[in-house]
Design goal:
The chain is α+β, with helices and mostly antiparallel strands. The protein contains 6 helices and 18 strands.
Length: 295
Amino acid sequence: MAGNRFHVVDVFAQEKYAGNQLAVVHDTASMTGDEMLEITRETNFSEATFIDSSETRDGGYDVRIFDPAEEIPFAGHPTLGTAFVVREFVRDDHPDELTLNLGVGQIPVHVERDEDGNELFWMNQVPPTFGETVPHSLAAKVLGLEVSDVDDTFPVQIVSTGLPTLVVPLRSLEAVRRAETNHDPYYEEFIEPYGGHNIVLFAPETEDENDIHARVFADYAGIPEDPATGSSNGCLAAWLVEHEYFDTSEIDVRVEQGYEMGRPSLLHLRASRADDVIDVEVGGRVIPVAEGRLL
């Protein structure tokens, strides 16, 4: 492992030291999965990624993603953060389109500029699948809330665009702020029967001029709370379209996350339905923070 170059970036951030941290390690084809897991745990970030080679395979870059517990097939901010590192530090031509080969398959990423000229990295997520619904009363118990805090107009449902997430609509920003995982019900009544899934809870009230305020919990993976979660927000985007939360089957919304952690994040979600298939895109800025080499 000695000598491998790495970069640290903040994803879904508007400035340094916000958003979600990511370590990206280069030229890791000779590393074992155990070594990658050790490095991930050393960073103390929610995920780290490992680029096998600066050469492409089938038009994409082979990338492995680890959280502190295990290798995972997909995650949102690692996808965008790794694409940024490939574009800025691997490719000399800085393309606006590239592809990563992940556990879920090939994920295309492209770059757009917002109205202020900032570069936004966008990923197309795999088509969503909609799984089991969970009783509103159980969601409230798991999150330490009252049943009345959960919006019973809509279902609490497991959705996946590569990494399953339980989507929980709440009635107010105050309820989102008050939520925390209730240890025994979380593990005994949610994780054991339903499986290891993230939880995204949200409300349409926001702190800044955005559309949704969200939080994501993933205690089962060693991440009590995540400051910005592209995979779970992709699931949320699909859920918003599936259940026409905004009375439309097409959305283009801004989600704020990470405020309760002191790492404010901004995620852009686009999703629409065509021929019974929901297309999901998640985008945001990536800010470089540090670079170095493993010793």
